[in-house]
């Protein structure tokens, strides 16, 4: 297993400064956020030469994109499919394992069919570029029942970004969801939190309610050999501790659990 962190930890830094911290702290690579706001890379292909030069010194686990596929509006789904195609090409040029996608937030059952239909279609393109499509357990797809239904329609080589904190926050458990997708996980998001005033408050590893030791033990027992990504989301929670303070704590904690 290799330990990376998401560039979400550093909304205030340039791409170059984020990449510098990969080697400074001793991480194995970076989960690179790619979004229209340009922090830290825009979804444009070909990738600009300067960014390619900066990124050439490190390993990229995946591109954390923001495409969603639950829409009933066909034109909106097609727009997201086109955006995913761009991300797939970018991932290929960076030798990244995959591209993170979302299902989206939905309540109607037909949304799961639309998600599977789009991703199965896009999987043809991903295969051509030797890139994995990775669905995050996020939004409505953090819920066990929706995951079960999606798996019934999804092609077997489409993978997952497993975020147990999202699963637990959706009132399911690691023990319920991990066995369903264990063979399809290519990245695991790690973060810990407590609940205060009905809100998630993110904390140092081992100080919250997420059973990180159990999760890592199960990954080791299964023979998982891909990426664990520390997801310190200062981009969305600016009140969080600085990444320079927290990322080394998570790295040390995970290394101890992994016996590195």
UniProtKB/TrEMBL annotation:
All residue ranges annotated as the Xylose isomerase-like TIM barrel domain in the record: 20-236
Membrane spanning residue stretches: none
Gene3D superfamilies: Divalent-metal-dependent TIM barrel enzymes
Highest rank taxon of the organism: Archaea
A matching Pfam family: AP_endonuc_2
Protein name: Xylose isomerase-like TIM barrel domain-containing protein
Organism (species): Saccharolobus solfataricus (strain 98/2) (Sulfolobus solfataricus)
Lineage: Archaea, Thermoproteota, Thermoprotei, Sulfolobales, Sulfolobaceae
């Amino acid at each position: 297993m290799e330990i990376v962190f998401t560039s979400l930890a550093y909304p205030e830094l340039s791409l170059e400064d984020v990449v510098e911290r990969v080697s400074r702290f001793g991480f194995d690579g970076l989960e690179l956020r790619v979004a229209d706001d340009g922090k830290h890379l825009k979804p444009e292909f070909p990738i600009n030469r300067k960014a390619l030069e900066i990124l050439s010194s490190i390993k990229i686990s995946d591109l954390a994109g923001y495409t969603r596929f639950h829409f009933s509006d066909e034109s909106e789904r097609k727009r997201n499919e086109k955006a995913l195609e761009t991300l797939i090409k970018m991932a290929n040029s960076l030798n990244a394992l995959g591209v993170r996608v979302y299902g989206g937030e939905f309540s109607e059952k037909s949304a799961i069919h639309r998600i599977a239909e789009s991703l199965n279609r896009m999987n043809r393109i991903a295969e051509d570029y030797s890139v994995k499509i990775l669905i995050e357990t996020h939004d409505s797809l953090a819920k066990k029942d929706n995951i079960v239904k999606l798996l019934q329609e999804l092609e077997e080589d489409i993978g997952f970004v497993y975020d147990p904190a999202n699963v637990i926050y959706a009132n399911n458990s690691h023990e319920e969801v991990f066995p369903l997708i264990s063979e399809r996980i290519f990245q695991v998001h790690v973060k810990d939190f407590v609940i205060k005033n009905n809100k998630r408050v993110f904390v140092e590893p081992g100080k919250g309610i997420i059973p990180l030791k159990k999760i890592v033990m199960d990954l080791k027992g299964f023979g998982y050999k891909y990426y664990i990504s520390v997801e310190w989301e200062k981009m969305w929670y600016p009140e969080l501790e600085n990444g320079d303070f927290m990322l080394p704590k998570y790295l040390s904690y995970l290394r101890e659990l992994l016996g590195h």
